[in-house]
Amino acid sequence: MRIHDSAIGVVLLLLAAFMAREAAGFPPMPGQRFGPSLVPNLLAAGFAICGLALVVSGLRRREVKGLVELGEWARKGGHVLDVGLVVGGLALLILLWKPVGFLIGATLYTGLLAARFRGGRVPSSLLVAALACFVVDWAFRRLLLVPLPQGPLTGLYW
Question: Could you tell me if 11 and 64 lie in one domain?
Answer without folding.
Answer: yes
